[in-house]
Design a protein that fits this description.
The protein is of the alpha/beta class. The chain has two domains: about 140 residues, Aspartate Aminotransferase, domain 1; about 240 residues, Aspartate Aminotransferase, domain 2. Helices cover about 40% and strands about 15% of the residues. Helix 1 runs antiparallel to helix 7, helix 2 runs parallel beside helix 7 and helix 9 packs across helix 11. The protein starts with a strand and ends with a helix.
Length: about 375
Amino acid sequence: MEAYLDNSATTKCSSKAVKLMTKVLTEDYGNPSSLHNKGMDGENYLRDARSIIAKSLKVNDKEIIFTSGGTESNNLALIGTAMAYKRRGMHIISTPIEHPSVANPLAFLEERGFEITYLPVDHSGLIDLKALSDEIRPDTILVSIMHVNNEIGAVEPIKEAANIIKQKNSTTLFHVDAIQSYGKLEILPKKMNIDLLSVSGHKIHGPKGSGFLYISEKVNCKPILLGGGQELGYRSGTENVPAIAGLGVAVEEIFKKFEKNQNQLYELKDYFVDEVQKIDGVSLNGPLDVHGAPHIISVSVEGVRAEVLLHALEEKYVYVSAGSACSSNKPALSKTLKAIGLNNNLLDSTVRVSFSVHTTKEEVDYALEQMQEIIPKLQKYTRH
């Protein structure tokens, strides 16, 4: 038996997406910028995927820019808009619990003279909306807030934040990192006053190396990759047609049964939460109600280092993660867990469990069975 519960790190690629990608790689392999029929075939795959994605967000096709994934989308959104609007102001607002692909570009901008304000978050990881309102200034050009935190699953009040931003300064742009929420929670940029939205393909059963950035047609964003002017000039470089085609298939599949998939995830989460808390020394972080994502659970285990638990579970073919998979190859103390005020003795004792639409109750039961057996043994071993 195997239980893959690290779906926030990556998901298994859709078999239908793999099949189409193989066809594009071996048969319809033309460069989409070429004027002959092979090139037109490539262009058609781009057009179809763009249309599918735009429909899922209820936006215009030309507002979808294909990228290599979430990191590039976040970098383009932050650096591209900061460069485009720096004459208007150099103040940006974000949070201390952002993914490194947001936190590091912000640090890059700070080194170049931009002022970054970080909003406080509560014990559940939710932002302080009053603080957001207080911090917006005439020279605030951008606010960047993730929709779902990748470690503890906190669902930020994006719609309320957007309303505050636009009321306080209608020219301030709003960027949302939706990498952990797209395909799991409803998110409609135009209805929710979102100007830029980042998404990664491999979090929703698309291929790695695929993603997109929604850029509202009203927004000016300078490219950070210069070259032949592909993707409406926003992102030069020959498009990764096989990955983009696969991404389109994955998006179509996940939105076809959106409500059913979402309900299934919530049911699995509720079940896991109830059962895992029966183990002595186990506590959970982040919201467990509607303010929590349906697929992410942060589990702290008193007296057991996260890396030790991770490898003990791995030996039983149960796969979880320690912190953000993208932060480094070796787990480090989480900035998110520090920001929510988690006890110091639990900072290095927290793992993340994350589900996908393909996660079964059998997998969850097997993982719980192994945790119930392994955790007491590890706690006994580490006690002094």
